[in-house]
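User: Show me sequence and structure for the first protein, then do the same for the second.

Assistant: Starting with the first protein.
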Amino acid sequence: MFGKLKTLAIALHQDERGDMAQIVLAVALIVIPLMLLLLAFGKQIGEWFNEKNTALSDAERIPEPGQ
């Protein structure tokens, strides 16, 4: 009985390792292209956000009703 339980535990452990490798691979396939995009266009993205922030800061505030 303990032999079957040990075999089951070992098989479960090996399956989890395979699942972990798939998860790491999936995350890497998402993160690596994003990092490449940030490296390629990071300065332009930063400038765009800076322009939008300046536009929001310089915009007139909407007055409260009744003022």
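Switching to the second protein now.
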Amino acid sequence: MDGLWTWKLFCFLTCSSLAWALCPNNSGVIDLSHQGLTSINASVFVDCPADAHTLILSGNNITRIHNDSFLEGQTVKFYQLLSLDLSNNHIEHIDDTAFGLLRRLEVLNLSGNSLTMLQSLLLDNKFYLRAVDFS
């Protein structure tokens, strides 16, 4: 391939019957954008690596983020997640502790959604959060 991007390893992970994640060079990026997802829960992320640092869910049909959307049982699925892109969905509501265990989150993109209000606890304990886009 060209000199800018050297792709040494392609790893395709089945993340649901609807979607595939492409992880070039074990980069820690899970891209489930434009997959027609209507909700997110543990079953969507069954075979996805728990140590991913970036999760892209943009351009789907997600309408609500539940408190257990990023949980696997009672623990957080993505314990090292730094960036979460939920842009351009149809999100109208986010439960108050939906991002509660994503303690390392630095970047949260919620742009292009239908949010009219946010729960007061939504961003509690987000000491590392540097950027949030609600546009």
